[in-house]
Amino acid sequence: MMIYVGNLDYAMTNEDLRLLFEPFGAVAMAEVQVKSRTGQSRGFGYVDMPNDHEADAAINALSGREHKERKLTVNESRPRRTVRDMYAGGGWFGGGSG
């Protein structure tokens, strides 16, 4: 399960994020998202936990919990929406073709 983790401290590293989730089970990947030009943290990241039960336990335990004086937002990651997704119903105004 891919997990979204928001409101992270800007000094948090990928390893810090991994260590936050490992007490709940196996972590396949932990990645803090950074700005491409500056390398500065964007304040959120993603954690991939292969076992859904362990992932659910981590979400329940960490969601709303304070970490480095910031209240974490932790939930199952939703697929990223694109402009194409928003207008898939038939053009810019959602109308038909005619």
Describe this entry's structure for a reader.
The chain is of the alpha+beta class. It has a single domain (about 1-85), classed as Alpha-Beta Plaits. Helices cover about 25% and strands about 30% of the residues. The chain has three helices and six strands; from the N terminus they run E-H-E-E-H-E-E-E-H. The chain has helices at about 15-20, 50-60, 85, and strands spanning about 1-5, 30-35, 40-50, 65, 70, 75. The strands form two sheets. The protein has a four-stranded antiparallel sheet, covered by helices on one side. It has a two-stranded antiparallel sheet with strand order 4-5. Strand 4 (about 65) and strand 5 form a beta hairpin. The longest helix is centred in the middle third of the chain and has 11 residues, at about 50-60. The chain is globular, with a radius of gyration of 17 Å.
Topology of this protein?
Layout: E1 2-6, H1 14-21, E2 29-34, E3 41-48, H2 52-62, E4 66-67, E5 70-71, E6 73-76, H3 83-86
Antiparallel strand pairs: 1-3, 1-6, 2-3, 4-5
Task: Give a quick set of tags describing it.
28% strand; two-stranded antiparallel sheet; four-stranded antiparallel sheet; single chain; 98 residues; Alpha-Beta Plaits; 6 strands; 3 helices
Short description:
The chain has helices spanning 14-21, 52-62, 83-86, and strands at residues 2-6, 29-34, 41-48, 66-67, 70-71, 73-76.
